C-alpha cells in the first residue's frame, strides 16, 4: 500500500502534574487561561492549523488528561508522536528533575526509529509567579540540561500571561513537521467508523 | 489514594474501561486501578517481549522476528461487527476519535474438510460450493424472509410468532438441509453450539440480520472491522475518555484488596497500605475470586507466521469458523488471523489464533483441527484459562463483577455484559440507537 503524505502532526505534552501543560495548550490554541486549578479535567487533544511555506498542516496537540499523575499513560498515547514537549515549572525543582524520567519514558514507550534525533522541546513555565522571586530553577541550569540531551530547544513561558507561548509552539510545529516528513508512515486504508467531533485529516492531499 | 470515590474500578479490561468511561461521563467520581503496568487486563495486546515473558518465562524472543514494539498480540482475539453493539458504544461515546479501523478481508467456514468463503454478495453466493443450486433457491427465500422481517410489523411475520416458533421449525418451513442449517446457524448467526435450534427463532433471525447489516456497512469482504495496532487500543481509548472526564488512573497497583463493612457492603479498596473509600466496586473476576464461579474454560493457540492462512485468497485478516458438527465437538472452533496490514506485526508477519471452549486439558491436541489449517508456523504458544461469572448479589454488597470473555470472535456478548452492568450500577439504560448511517461509511 502506498504511503501517505502527512498533513496531520501529532504533538504530545509531558510533565509532572500541575506544571501547566493544559494551560499552555489552551493559551496557544484558544488564547485562554483559567486560574482555577483542578487536576486536568476535560482536556483531551486540541487541533490548530499551521502554515509553512504555503502548505497547511494540522497540529494535533495531545494532553495527558491527568493520566500522568500516577504514571498511568498507555502506549497508545505515545504512538505516532512527531514531537514531544517536556514541561516543567520553574518554581518546582522536582518537576525539573523529573524531566529526565519523562524523556526516558517517552523513548521507551514511543520507541522512535531514530531516538538520537527525535525532536523534543522543553518549556519552563510559570515564570510570572511572584514576579520571578520564587523561581528555583535557573535558566542556565535548564539550558545546560537541554544541551546535554542533544541541544533540545528551550523556552521559558507564562501560560497565564501568554509570554513566549506562541514562539514555543512555532518551534514545536516546525520540529514536528520536520520529523513527520522524514518518516514515511505506513498507514493502511482506514474506514471512518463514527462521527468524530474533531475530524482527522489523514487523507491524501489530492 | 486515601480519598473518597463514587466507584472504584479494578482491572483495565475492555469491559471495565468502557464502564469507567461511561460512569465518568455521567459525572461520577471514578478511581480505576490495575495490578499490571499496562492497560487491558485479560483483553490486552502484548508486544513480543511481553508475549515471551508470559509464555516462555525468561527466554528472549529471537531477533529475526523483528522489533518487539511492532507486535500487538491480542490476548482475547475478536473482530468487531461493523453494525454491532461495540460500534454503537464507540459512536455513542465518541471514542472513535482515538482509534483507526480497517475492514477485515474475509470470513470463512470449514465444511466437509475444506475452507469456504462465506459469500459476501449475490455473485459469491451463486458460485459458492456450500450449497447446491436447488438448495440455493430455497435458502434465498429464507434469506428474503429474514431480510424483510421487522419485529414491530406483524405483516412481515408471515403468520409465525418467532418468540414461540423454534429455529428448527422455522427452517423446516423452508425445507433446508442439515448442511445449510449448519452454515446458517454457525457462519451467519454465529452460534457456537446447536442449542439455538430448539430455542425461539427470534434470536437467530436477529443475528442473521446483524450479519447482513454489518456486511453491507462498509461493503468489504466480511462483516467485521478491526482496529489498527490491535484490540489493546480499545481499553486505552475508553480509559482516556474516563480520564478526560475526571477519572483517576493508577496502574501497577499490586494486590488491590476490596474492604467490606460488618454488613458485607463494600467500603473501599486497599493497596500498598492506603485505602480509598467508595460506594461501589466494579471489577473483573480476578479481583474478587470469592464471589465468582467457574463456568467453563477457553483453549487457545497463538501462532506467529510468515504467510496468510492457506485457502483464504491471501487474506491479510480473516476469520474461519469450524462448526462443532464438522469437528464432532460440543462447540465451535474459531480461527482469527491479522497481520502487518493492521499494524499488529512487522511487515510480512501474520498473527493467527485458534480458540474454542475447552473440552479437554490438552489444548495442543484439542486445537489440532484448527492448527492444521494454518500451514507452517514460525512460533506457537498454547493457553488454557477458566471463565467465570459472578454469584454475588450486587444490591447487597455493591460489587459489580464482569463475566469472563468467551471464545467467540466477536464482541456482542461482551457489550451485552457491559450494558447490563451499567444498568445495575446506575439504574439507567443507555440508548444506543445511534444513526449509523450518519457515520460516514466512505473508505479513505
Low-confidence stretches of chain A: 1-5, 195-206
Oligomer: heterodimer
CATH architecture of the largest domain in chain B: 3-Layer(bba) Sandwich
| Low-confidence sequence ranges of chain B | 439-444
- Mean pLDDT rating of chain A: 83
Which CATH first-tier class of chain A would you pick?
Alpha Beta
Largest sheet of chain B: 7 strands, mixed
Helix content of chain A: 25-40%
How big is the Rg of chain B? 22 Å
CATH homologous superfamily assignment of the largest domain in chain B: FAD/NAD(P)-binding domain
Distance between the termini of chain A: 16 Å
Keywords (chain A): Cell membrane, GTP-binding, Lipoprotein, Membrane, Methylation, Nucleotide-binding, Prenylation, Protein transport, Transport
Function (chain A): Protein transport. Probably involved in vesicular traffic.
Membrane topology (chain A): Lipid-anchor
Organism (chain A): Glycine soja
Task: Please tell me about this protein's structure.
The complex is a heterodimer of chains A (206) and B (444). By secondary structure, chain A is an alpha/beta fold. Chain A has one domain (7-184): Rossmann fold (3-Layer(aba) Sandwich). Helix content of chain A is 29%, strand content 19%. A six-stranded mixed β-sheet of chain A has the order 2-3-1-4-5-6, with helices on both faces. The longest helix of chain A is centred in the C-terminal third of the chain and has 18 residues, at 165-182. Residues 1-5 and 195-206 of chain A have low confidence and may be disordered. By secondary structure, chain B is of the alpha/beta class. Chain B folds into three domains: 2-42 and 229-291 and 387-431, FAD/NAD(P)-binding domain, CATH 3.50.50.60; 46-103 and 295-385, Guanine Nucleotide Dissociation Inhibitor, domain 2 (2-Layer Sandwich), CATH 3.30.519.10; 117-214, Guanine Nucleotide Dissociation Inhibitor, domain 1 (Orthogonal Bundle). Chain B has helices at 14-25, 48-56, 85-93, 122-127, 133-148, 167-173, 178-188, 202-218, 233-244, 324-327, 363-366, 368-371, 394-397, 412-426, and strands spanning 4-10, 30-33, 45-46, 73-74, 80-81, 101-103, 106-111, 114-117, 224-227, 248-250, 257-260, 266-271, 274-283, 292-305, 318-322, 333-339, 350-357, 379-390, 399-401. In chain B, strands 1, 2, 10, 11, 12, 13 and 19 form a seven-stranded mixed β-sheet that branches. Chain B is globular. The A-B interface holds A 1, 41-44, 65-67, 69-72, 74-77, 79, 111, 186-198, 200, 202-203 and B 38-39, 67, 69, 87, 90-91, 94, 96-103, 218, 225, 228-229, 232-233, 236-237, 239-240, 243-246, 248-252, 341-343, 347, 438-444. Chain A: Its main location: membrane. Chain A: This is Ras-related protein Rab7. Chain A: One of its GO terms (biological process) is protein transport.
Amino acid at each position: 500500500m502506498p504511503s501517505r503524505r502527512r498533513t496531520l502532526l501529532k504533538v504530545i505534552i509531558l510533565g509532572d502534574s500541575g506544571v501547566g501543560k493544559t494551560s499552555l495548550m489552551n493559551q496557544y490554541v484558544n488564547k485562554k487561561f483559567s486560574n482555577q486549578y483542578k487536576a486536568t479535567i476535560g482536556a483531551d487533544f486540541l487541533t490548530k492549523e499551521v502554515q509553512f511555506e504555503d502548505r497547511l498542516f494540522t497540529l494535533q496537540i495531545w494532553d495527558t488528561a491527568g493520566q500522568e499523575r500516577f504514571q498511568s499513560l498507555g502506549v497508545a498515547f505515545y504512538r505516532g508522536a512527531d514531537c514531544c514537549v517536556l514541561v516543567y515549572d520553574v518554581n518546582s525543582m522536582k518537576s525539573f528533575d523529573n524531566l529526565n524520567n519523562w524523556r526516558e519514558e517517552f523513548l521507551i514507550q514511543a520507541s522512535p526509529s531514530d531516538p538520537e534525533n527525535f525532536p523534543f522541546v522543553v518549556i519552563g513555565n510559570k515564570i510570572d509567579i511572584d514576579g520571578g522571586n520564587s523561581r528555583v530553577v535557573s535558566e542556565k541550569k535548564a539550558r545546560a540540561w537541554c544541551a546535554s540531551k542533544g541541544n533540545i530547544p528551550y523556552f521559558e513561558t507564562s501560560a497565564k500571561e501568554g509570554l513566549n507561548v506562541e514562539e514555543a509552539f512555532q518551534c514545536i510545529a516546525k520540529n514536528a513537521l520536520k520529523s513527520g516528513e522524514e518518516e514515511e508512515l505506513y498507514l493502511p486504508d482506514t474506514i471512518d467508523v463514527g462521527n468524530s467531533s474533531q475530524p482527522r485529516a489523514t487523507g491524501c492531499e489530492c | 489514594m486515601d480519598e473518597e470515590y463514587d466507584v472504584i474500578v479494578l482491572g483495565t479490561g475492555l469491559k471495565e474501561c468502557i464502564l469507567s468511561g461511561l460512569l465518568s461521563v455521567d459525572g461520577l467520581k471514578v478511581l480505576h486501578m490495575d495490578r499490571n503496568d499496562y492497560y487491558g487486563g485479560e483483553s490486552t495486546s502484548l508486544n513480543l517481549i511481553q508475549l515471551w515473558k508470559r509464555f516462555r518465562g525468561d527466554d528472549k524472543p529471537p531477533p529475526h522476528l523483528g522489533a518487539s514494539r511492532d507486535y500487538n498480540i491480542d490476548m482475547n482475539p475478536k473482530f468487531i461487527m461493523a453494525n454491532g453493539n461495540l460500534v454503537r458504544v464507540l459512536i455513542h461515546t465518541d471514542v472513535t476519535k482515538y482509534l483507526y479501523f480497517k475492514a477485515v478481508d474475509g470470513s470463512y467456514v470449514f465444511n466437509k474438510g475444506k475452507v469456504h468463503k462465506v459469500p459476501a454478495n449475490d455473485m459469491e453466493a451463486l458460485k459458492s460450493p456450500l450449497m447446491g443450486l436447488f438448495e440455493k433457491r430455497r435458502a434465498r427465500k429464507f434469506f428474503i424472509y429474514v431480510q424483510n422481517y421487522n419485529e414491530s410489523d406483524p405483516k412481515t411475520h408471515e403468520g409465525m410468532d418467532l418468540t414461540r416458533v423454534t429455529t428448527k421449525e422455522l427452517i423446516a418451513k423452508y425445507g433446508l438441509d442439515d448442511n445449510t442449517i449448519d452454515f446458517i446457524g454457525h457462519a451467519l448467526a454465529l452460534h457456537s453450539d446447536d442449542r439455538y435450534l430448539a430455542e425461539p427463532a427470534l434470536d437467530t433471525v436477529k443475528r442473521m440480520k446483524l450479519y447482513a447489516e454489518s456486511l453491507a456497512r462498509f461493503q468489504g469482504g466480511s462483516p467485521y472491522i478491526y482496529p489498527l495496532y490491535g484490540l489493546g487500543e480499545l481499553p486505552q481509548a475508553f480509559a482516556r475518555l474516563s480520564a478526560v472526564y475526571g477519572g483517576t488512573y493508577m496502574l501497577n497497583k499490586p494486590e488491590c484488596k476490596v474492604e467490606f463493612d460488618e454488613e458485607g457492603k463494600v467500603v473501599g479498596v486497599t493497596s500498598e497500605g492506603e485505602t480509598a473509600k467508595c460506594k461501589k466496586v466494579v471489577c473483573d473476576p480476578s479481583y474478587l475470586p470469592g464471589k465468582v464461579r467457574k463456568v467453563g474454560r477457553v483453549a487457545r493457540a497463538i501462532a506467529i507466521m510468515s504467510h496468510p492462512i492457506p485457502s483464504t485468497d491471501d487474506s491479510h485478516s480473516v476469520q474461519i469458523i469450524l462448526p462443532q458438527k464438522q469437528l464432532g465437538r460440543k462447540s465451535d472452533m474459531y480461527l482469527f488471523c491479522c497481520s502487518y496490514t493492521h499494524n499488529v506485526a512487522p511487515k510480512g508477519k501474520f498473527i493467527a489464533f485458534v480458540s474454542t471452549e475447552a473440552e479437554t486439558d490438552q489444548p495442543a491436541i484439542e486445537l489440532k483441527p484448527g492448527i492444521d489449517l494454518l500451514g507452517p508456523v514460525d512460533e506457537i504458544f498454547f493457553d488454557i484459562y477458566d471463565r467465570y461469572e459472578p454469584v454475588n448479589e450486587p444490591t447487597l454488597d455493591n460489587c459489580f463483577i464482569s463475566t469472563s470473555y468467551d471464545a467467540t470472535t466477536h464482541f456482542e456478548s461482551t457489550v451485552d455484559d457491559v450494558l447490563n452492568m451499567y444498568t445495575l450500577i446506575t439504574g439507567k439504560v443507555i440508548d444506543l440507537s445511534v444513526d449509523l448511517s450518519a457515520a460516514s461509511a466512505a473508505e479513505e
